[in-house]
Design a protein that fits this description.
The complex is a heterodimer of chains A (141) and B (659). Chain A has 141 residues and is α+β, with helices and mostly antiparallel strands. Chain A is 14% helix and 17% strand. In chain A, a hairpin with a 7-residue loop joins β2 and β3. The radius of gyration of chain A is 17 Å and the shape is elongated. Chain B is of the alpha+beta class and 659 residues long. In chain B, 38% of the residues lie in helices and 13% in strands. Chain B has a 6-stranded mixed sheet with strand order 2-1-6-3-4-5, sandwiched between helices. Chain B has a 6-stranded mixed sheet with strand order 8-7-12-9-10-11. In chain B, β4 and β5 form a beta hairpin. In chain B, α21 packs across α24. Chain B starts with 13 loop residues before the first strand and ends in a 20-residue tail after the last helix. Classes of the chains: A alpha+beta (141), B alpha+beta (659). Chains A and B meet through α3 of A and α3, α7 and β14 of B.
Amino acid sequence: MPFTITDRCIGCSVCKKICPADAIQGEKGKLHKIDPNACYECSACGRICPQSAVKNAQGKFIERIRIRRNWPKPSIDTAKCMSCNICIDACPRACLTLQYTMDTTDKKGFPVLARSRNCIGCEFCAAACPVEAIVMTVNPV
Amino acid sequence: MIKNKKMKNAYMGKILWVDLESGRLQEEEIDETIYRESLAGTGMAARILLDRIPPQTDPLGPDNIICFVSGLLTGTGSLFTGRWMVAAKSPLTGTWGDANCGGNFSPAIKRCGYDGIFFKGVSPQPVYFCINDGKAELRDARDVWGKDTKETEAFLKKESGCRMPRIASIGQAGENISLIAGIANDGGRMAARSGLGAVMGSKKLKAVVLDGTHRIRVHDQAEIRRLSQKCNENIQFMPPFPPAFVLAYMGAILRALPAQPSTETLMFNTVYKRMLQKWGTASLNQILIELGDSPIKNWKGSNEDFGPEHSENLNPNVFSDCVIVKYHCYACPLGCGGICHRPGLPGETHKPEYETVLALGGLCLNDDADSIFRMNETLNRAGMDSISAGGTIAFAIECFEKGILTLIDTDGLELTWGNSKAIEALVDRMIHRQGIGDLLADGVRAASLKIGKGSAEYAIHAGGQELAMHDGRYDPGFALHNCVEATPGRHTIGSQMYYELFQLWEKVPDLPEPGLIYMKRSKYVPDREKAVAAATCSKYMNVINGSGACLYGALMGTKDFPLFEWLNAATGWQMSPHDYLEIGADIQSMKQQFNIKQGIKPRDIKVTDRALGRPPLTAGANQGRSVPVDKMVKDYWEVLGWDPESGTPLSIGKMDWEL
């Protein structure tokens, strides 16, 4: 079942603006629509919607999180992380990058949230991590 | 805009065709039956290219098709499954050509919504292909033509406008249509073999730039995660390991034994994993020389010509000590690669692999590590295969030694064994096709045909492709696969040691299980069991390459590398390991049929006599050994159900295919 915008929508277009897949159409002041073929279900539209008008794939309304900095962000447990790059690839906003030092005695590189302002809290990185090394939190380490 | 239709489990269900001549793009839906019968990756590529490339196609002409394909398991959460593959008719061998590579390009193909991107025709001017935000287009590449692969990546990262582009590109070698050119991604990881960089160059296709956000769906995410966590637990188990210098002695001791313990007896699956973890493939630098697996001095020398006093300069620590960060390909928990910073070398460079170190080192009697670091970077940047480059240089040195090439021919280069300055200069000339470099830029077979004067004897190749750094006189399985694979001269398909490491008998009980210890001379006696083992390696590696998996994962053994279970969990299919190996057999038949369609007679694919021990070496680890390859080839074809005289497949599984 695709994500849908219900008639709670007031056509403010903030969802359209944030959608990273460019999947939302609609004129200002009118009911907006999600293209199910383009949507990759990141939930950003629901989190930003002032009317909590968006239903997810399970048919539940996505809860609005009023302040953007309170959206969940990935926190990486380097003890569990195997540096496999899967999370970096999974991020649709290219927020994560591999960080390492020039020190030849410390050879491990780990993903870091380099562009936290781009993060939309989609949790794709956490969902993709095979070893559960990423948890979503409001105040990432 | 490319439409983003609902995707299937593990695969995306479509490919993209790009006509470089007209600029036309066309999507093609791929039915699930194709994936069930051929998987994705090179399996799907073999099926499509066999059908679409006309007979007697000029590999550098418009009718050749070059495709970039991702594996069935790539992006599913399985581990060791980030390889991308490129396939076309090879200009180097005239046969089926494929090459595969790690890095981060493979998931990008699927993230753009495709299992493969296929290019046909020849562009009238240099172009690069870009998919950004679902928009696919050919763009002018005149500004980037002439740049090396690293410069190209840096330039296109800015110019393409993509958020996080993944880029595969050719350097000057591909642009100059050197038949030993490869395709690079991620700052120097190379899909190097088969000369496919020359196919890109001939099509004036400088690069493929991908940035997409499609999700890759799977049937049973929880099961994939369970399997991956179990696999990772084994990877992260790091027992203490002896220092690097011990490896050379281990090789010498094993060489001295008349009997060979199987890899299971030596717990080599675990040992090898640990070696890769600690040093990468450079861990093999000394041990394989001592064992006799590394060809020395253009295959006429032995471990005695390049003993520990020389190889010590190339010991694993020399390379791993320069690593500033371990390099992991996509979905790899092991990280055998490394980004190095070598004092005296500008910037960062990928750690030289074993193949590169031996091809530019022992094969040319060069023990100058600095020169190998520099040449590794130069070749990666130029997009030239370091195995073929090393093999060609060793050939040139022997021609010089024999007086076939003179100082006049070499423009004053003293091409003597171990002369690292001359070797480095020759690499540059080959890349830019200057002077003697132009003669050598197409590999040993083309060079020996031009030079004549009996030089063919010193041109070591299989069907035109320079042999990798694994000696069939040590492991006859390498010699066999050099002869029988649809792309001759490949070292990543099978050998007697690979079969032991794969441990496929654990999953398919009908397969032969080697003894815990056996006499070394028995390796050189052809029998049905060895033919079954070799055919199984070919089949299994087709499944691996159809899945986008890495050979090093497979070498951990099927107990620790649950490929078949991952495939079932990702796709929802309920196929047995035996079923998957049958798919592998069909892919092997399709590749062989591709060659036959192109007018290649499998019997005509030959390995240079010297590499088969004809005549045998008179000293060193492989002294007195020769490989009865003719009988082995016949047995192999028979086991695959092909005509044992001609090597022609008689049918391709259940497929409705007219042979």
